[in-house]
Amino acid sequence: MKASTVSSTAAASQPANQINVNAPRKSFLARFQRWEWMLVALVVIAIVINSRLTPYFLNAQNLSRTSADFMELGLMMLPMVFIIITGNIDLSVASNLGMCASFMAVLWNLHVNIWIAAGAGLALATLGGLLNGFLIAKVKLPALVATLGTYAFFRGIAYVLLGDQAGRGYPPAFTYLGQGKIPGTLIPFSVGLFAVLAVVFGLVLHRTTFGRYIFSIGNNENASIYAGVQVARIKMTIYIVSGFMAGLAGLVLAARFGSTRPDIGTGLELTVITAAVLGGVDINGGIGTMPGAVLSLLLIGLVRFGMGLKNVQDQVQSIAIGSLLILSILLASVARTISASGLKFNWRNIATAAAFIIVFAAFFFFFFWSRAPVLKSVFG
Amino acid sequence: MTVKTPTASRSNLLLTLTRYREFGIILIIIILAVIVTLRAPVFLTLGNFRDILLDISILVIVALAQTMVILTHGIDLSVGSVIGLVAMMVAFTIKANPTIPLVVVVLLGMALGAILGSFNGLIIAIGKVPPIIATLGTLSIYRGMIFLYSKGYWIPPFQLPDTFKLLSKGTFLGIPHIIIFAIVVAILVYYFLNYTRTGRDIYAVGSNPDAAQYVGIRKQRIIFLVYVLTGIAAGLAGVLWASRFESSQTNTALGFELQTVAASIVGGVSISGGVGTVPGVLLGALLLGMINNSVTLVRISPFWEQAAQGLLILIAVVSDILIMRRVQRNKSK
Amino acid sequence: MKRNTFYIVLSAVAMLSILLSACGTAATPTTSAPAPATSAPAAKRTYVLVPKNLGNPYFDAANTGAQKAATELGVTVLYQGPTTADATAQITMLNALIAQKVSGLAISADDADALVPTGQAAIAAGIPVVTWDSNIAKGGTQLFVNQADTQGIGDSQVQMALQITGPDGGEIAILSATAQAPNQNAWIEVMKTDLAKPEYAKLKLDTIVYGNDDDTTSYNQALALIKTYPALKVIVAPTSVGIAAAARAVKDQNLTGKVFVTGLGTPNALRDYVKSNIIPEFALWNVPDLGYLTIYALDAIASGKIKGNPGDTFTAGTLGSYTIAPDNTILLGKPFIFNKDVIDKFNF
Global pTM? Predict the structure, then answer.
């Protein structure tokens, strides 16, 4: 119960104008009322738009196939929520995924039983998580630095292990993890797995002492240490769990592909972090909910699938997701600033704003016109 | 910043050396150089050294700017996309207007970079969006804009005039231009950080944000400024990139942001702000360049390359933090 | 509480506008909604040509041929691909295409194995799947349009290398794409077998390096090759990114006339180097024809003219008649050798 006192003092010490947005220790329901409802609204809007724009959206078969595409992201996102709430980050998850899948593939190519190989892959990924935890909790490297190093290192190990080889021909019992459906339904097995784990992670985060410690570390790490929270051990634990989940995601992805190459899952870490942050998890730590993160994953999936159905190019989709990410934080912050201090309509502010608008307008004018030889007349 | 306490008690040479922040990385550079030279003597030739410098010039320019951002306890993940977008826009402009003077091209690239950087600065300094989120967003947005702009096409070498290619490849007193660009940028940043008030304010904002609040509005301005400066550096890098690689593609400088961050932190810049030097970052970039260069030279399997890079980065940062801790302990004695 | 409601409403309105505008741009890239598959009249059939990645001049060239075929056949051909050559992204995109029930897919696979389940799902959904340029492993496709057989390309690479070094031979090195690229690995296998033959005994293969089909990496790998092997005469790069990067490295090191480059590439990217004799010759199939043939083959299956079984014969517009070989492939033709005498006749 020490932790709750700690975090309440931490909350009390914060400036008054931040409490109404941060409010770290309110009831679960009160928390859910903010950003999460907004995500619910956005998800509903996305569903309505998608189903009006294309007749292929509300089709169980299609939704089933597409939902499986986002489950590896989801599996890695669950522990990422824990990590970001403690004020840390893990850039190495996708590389760890590759390391796990590659190790499994190597063993499978050596005719090891697939389940033993998969277990060994999971063990290696967990070990990878342990290395991260050690570097961050014991050596006290900043998380960004440590996992930037392991990001390169784990992916490198994947290449060392598998080289130009590929693992393929996995037995159906294994590919069921990524391709199979829960018997009698259209729900992919991986979606079921994710749903169960999401509930487990959510309960641990919001209903246990361990979860409260996670928040207290994120709110004020030093105060937590003085209050007797075993910060190092908790950090170690969540990085180990993150390694394990990355490994699990690796198995699911390898099963979905029915094969493994060492570049498997490259670059997924940024989407994982995007999903967590869009879900209302504060990158500075201390704030976040599991339902929010799950909803944001759903939103990203819906937006991507909807745009895919309309044949919007991949790059335009990334512009939309990037804007969504920035706006989700920016709008709340701007609204807060405006309502806290009011808009000052002095000449200085107006001139600054006008200058920015002119500069950006000039940029876009150039953006759309510079492909034509408009400058030729000047320098001809 | 550099720890230079003149109170040298009866410490031995090693201890004196460890007082310098850059000691750890120099040690690693020497060890690596010796090992690689034993296996591939070509490593220790002037020609190879020149190639390493050529290879890291663009990295140095952007990593130094990235360092300024990290000094304020920020990060700019969008630099790779800014380089790509500026390279694409500049290359298309030159293709359409081959007679455009080089000075205009360079200024255009820096201006475009400044605008893209100012957008980052605006949402971070005024909009109060955490830097990692803001630039993660613009990483995707700017990369997407490259595609919108180029419509998926690219600029192959034969569509760029030779004068533009010489911008990076030409030599002055035997030194390739691109290296001179990097040296000039390094001197400018060194002077700016150490001998101007604004430069010292950058350290102040990062090392003690609460105390820095006394300057009030200046903190916002400083933060805005570092992102604009990073944009300018990335814009310059974009022009040089298009010139050096004689082309511009939609995936130009994809993933480059992590290299710039790596060069900074390997060079001893603290990710939590306020600590870091220009010489350190130069050494960090040099070490990364040497790793790249040597992994291919010593003919170890190409599959080991990335693992070796990752491992060396880890060793560099871990040894750095251990050395620093020892220095702190000796100082407190 | 009022204040919070205010934020939420404000944010929701703004985000809604973003979503709407994002979906609004949806309308621009494509004009017509794809129609249901099979036996639709030609005017309503929509095929999708899927490259390994967008922004790659090689695939863009194939698309020009595909669009020509589309005009002749009176069908619509969309050109959709992931932004980087990555199987995960390609699969997500293909799933969205399958969901629309497009009339046919022509895929250049980013990963031969990983795309098998996706290819099977498309076929199961009644969408014909043809692969081109890079095949999907067994079961994931109905037909592979092979640009040139593996043997022919591998042979051409070694022949060109010997042509450049002259009968005295010399040291050569291979700069490949990624270590996983199925095409390049198959060609390199052929090259290794060829090099073991007596007629190529004078050629000594120093090493194989991987530039990951990334310009910067390929350039640096080529530089390292030049430095590590002072006696190196020819860099063989069977990838369009690698060959251009290697040629630039030779030029930048002022080694024109000492180190030569050959391999596979596209004329526009290599024009300067061919003329300055850094690349005396290089090979490639006729890429626009590859896209052209692929769309004709896909249309033959989608319109029900052929089943796609071995022995089936169809006519591919101006290219004439093709018969499907026993291994479910059709072969475009022999690789074409580009040198400074012929290169100006091609523009892609």
Answer: 0.81
